[in-house]
C-alpha cells in the first residue's frame, strides 16, 4: 500500500496520558505529522466497564481514521489496549499498535523478584495482565494496584495545577502495603498517565524503585512498521483532538504545545 508523505500517526487515549507515548515517538520520528486524540467525553476509562470500553474505543477510532486518514494508529492507553485492542484491529484497515503493561522488561530487570503493576482499576483486573504475568513473570511475585487518583494527578500536572503529594504516596502504598511489597524493586507504570508523574512517584517512594513503561519500545515498533514510508521534510504542526471541549481543555494548551501539538480541535 502506498502511503502519502503527509499521512499522520494517530495517537489515542482517554486524556493526556498518551503524551508519554507520543514523546519518545516524536524523538524517533521527528518528521512524522501527528494527530493526538483524547476522549475527554469518555474520560476516565479506568473506572468504566469492559463492555463500555470495548464498544466505545473501536467506534471512536473508526471516526478518527475516517477524518484524519492516518497511516497507523497507536492506542496510547493501557486500559483501552488490554480490553479493546483486538476489536480495534478487526475494525480498522491500518496497522494498530497497542500499549500493554511492561511486565516482561520488569521481570528481566527485577533483582528482588517482586514487581508492582500500577495501572487503572480496569487494567489491573484484565486477563491480559494475568497472561503477561504468567508468561514473563512466573518466578516473580506480581503485585497489582489500580489508582484513579493518580490519573487525575497527571491531568492536573499538565494543567499546571498545584499537586497533592499524598496522591503519589497513597498509590505506591497500594503496592508496598501488600504482602511482599516491602521487597518490591520495580514498578510497571501500566497506565500511560503515570510516566507523566514519575518524578512525584519517585519522590514519594520510601526506598529507591525502578519505574518502567513501554514508550521507547512503542516508538521502535512505529519506526519499524513505517520504515519504508515517506515523511514530509517539513511536517504540519501537530493537532490535539478532544471529544468534548470543556473548561479543562484550555489550561492544557501550553503542555500540548510543548509536545508539538499547538493546534486544538473538537472531534
Ligand atoms: N491513560 C489510560 C491508561 O493507560 C487511562 C486513564 C483513564 O482514563 O482512566 O490506562
Automatic annotation (TrEMBL):
Record-listed substrate binding positions: 13-14, 45-46, 78-79, 192-193
Active site: 77 (proton donor/acceptor), 191 (proton donor/acceptor)
Reactions the enzyme catalyzes: L-glutamate = D-glutamate
GO biological-process terms attached to the record: cell wall organization; peptidoglycan biosynthetic process; regulation of cell shape
Molecular-function annotations in GO: glutamate racemase activity
This protein's pathway: Cell wall biogenesis; peptidoglycan biosynthesis
Keyword Isomerase: yes
InterPro entries in the cross-refs: Asp/Glu/hydantoin_racemase, Asp/Glu_race, Asp/Glu_racemase_AS_1, Asp/Glu_racemase_AS_2, Glu_race
Pfam families xref list: Asp_Glu_race
The UniProt record lists the keyword Magnesium: no
Keywords: Cell shape, Cell wall biogenesis/degradation, Isomerase, Peptidoglycan synthesis
Enzyme Commission code: 5.1.1.3
Annotated family: Belongs to the aspartate/glutamate racemases family.
NCBIfam families linked: glut_race
Function according to Swiss-Prot or TrEMBL: Provides the (R)-glutamate required for cell wall biosynthesis.
Protein name, entry field: Glutamate racemase
Protein species of origin: Sphingobium fontiphilum
